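Service request form, structural biology core

Requester: graduate student, group of Dr. S.
Request type: structure prediction, single chain
Budget code: on file
Notes: please return the result as structure tokens.

Sequence provided:
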Amino acid sequence: MGVAVPRGYGFDKASLAASNFLPVDRMILGFFRRAESRKRLIDGLQARIDQAARVPGLYRRLQVPDTVEGRFEAVCLHVHLAMRRLKQLPPPAEDVAQDLINAVFAQFDASLRELGVGDVGVPKRMKKLAQAFYGRAGGYDVALDAGDRTALALALGRNVLGDADGERAGPLADYVIAADATLAGASLDDLLGDGPRFPRPDDVGTALGAET
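Core staff response, request fulfilled:
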């Protein structure tokens, strides 16, 4: 599952500022530029996002289709939520976000090839996947930024559930809103260490708790 990063081990500015080590920016960037350590951290982050996108409650309780397309949508949704938080954090979070999206699309590329898509067809399919991901991310961001549950449910219904009216997407919208609120308090150390933490899909509609 990757390497957990102890508090203040190179990414948490507040803890570093209180230390007697190198200046904050030098230490953070120096550690993150170590290729082997950097790859382990990104691999761990990606693995935890993938795990969150496979939780059975997403498919059983929140009605995400248990299909290749549905699982793609679940991965995209959780990657977007993690990326959204990373973009709100100070450097080197932007570098982490870029490495994460690179790793995600490398995984998509490998998956297409495993499904038998040839070298000629992969670039076209990857372009469509990229357009789908960024289009969805933009729509979810607009709804989340506005605090508009109805707009979010419409977007999730259309993209994830195949429900044009968003009538069945209310619970999934509640899950996304709760996840966004939980991640809003996460530091970069949290995301690269024990997190990102997402709500339990089975708790939607009751008392939303964090996935352990």
